[in-house]
């Protein structure tokens, strides 16, 4: 377990959750893009103990944390295992716990377009959407599926245009922005399939 990340009242913190199994350059790329495009003060990598939507468990948390810290070297990005400390399993639970522990801090959930495409399968996904702004970063091949997803359709009126994505930091939920970027096509799944993890 590591020390809990520090946040000051009034800061806007982006939360990039995932198993990071393994962490890769694509995670670094979207983290830097999220800081810039969504006007975040800081960003936390929430390295999860496990993903409820995946059948097989990830590599040991300590291994993933070690590689993530070595890879993500940025003064405004913190790699944390706070979900393991909190004992939360689902994103909604984590958000509830963080909002209690960090009063006055604004959180923005960051996800890839691939996650938006199946966001409606997440536990309490509507509560998440209506509680924190969401920044979506396009990955190759996921743009159309994400834009046609159930979540995108249900919350179409809450969408902020990509050119105004920097306003997401102060938007009241429900609010989400979809940003197209020249993306890295790396994926943790592909890395595992090649036996490189």
Automatic annotation (TrEMBL):
The protein's Enzyme Commission number: 2.7.7.18
Top-level lineage group: Bacteria
GO-annotated molecular function: ATP binding; nicotinate-nucleotide adenylyltransferase activity
Domain Cytidyltransferase-like, residue spans: 15-194
A single GO BP: NAD+ biosynthetic process
Job description of the protein: Catalyzes the reversible adenylation of nicotinate mononucleotide (NaMN) to nicotinic acid adenine dinucleotide (NaAD).
Name assigned to this protein: Probable nicotinate-nucleotide adenylyltransferase
Organism expressing this protein natively: Yoonia rosea
The gene coding this protein: nadD
């Amino acid at each position: 377990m590591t020390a809990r990340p520090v946040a000051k009242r009034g800061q806007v913190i982006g939360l990039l959750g995932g198993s990071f199994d393994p962490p890769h350059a694509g995670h670094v790329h979207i983290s830097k893009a999220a800081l810039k495009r969504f006007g975040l003060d800081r960003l936390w990598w929430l390295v999860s103990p496990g993903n409820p939507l995946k059948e097989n468990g990830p590599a040991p948390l300590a291994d993933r944390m070690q590689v993530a810290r070595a890879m993500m070297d940025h003064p405004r990005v913190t790699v944390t295992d706070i979900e393991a400390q909190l004992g939360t399993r689902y994103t909604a639970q984590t958000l509830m716990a963080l909002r209690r522990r960090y009063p006055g801090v604004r959180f923005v959930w960051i996800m890839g377009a691939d996650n938006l495409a199946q966001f409606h399968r997440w536990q309490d996904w509507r509560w998440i959407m209506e509680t924190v702004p969401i920044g979506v970063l396009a990955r190759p091949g996921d743009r159309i599926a994400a834009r046609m997803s159930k979540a995108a359709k249900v919350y179409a009126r809450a969408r902020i245009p990509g050119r105004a994505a920097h306003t997401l930091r102060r938007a009241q939920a429900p609010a989400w922005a979809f940003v197209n970027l020249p993306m890295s096509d790396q994926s943790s799944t592909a890395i595992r399939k090649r036996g490189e993890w």
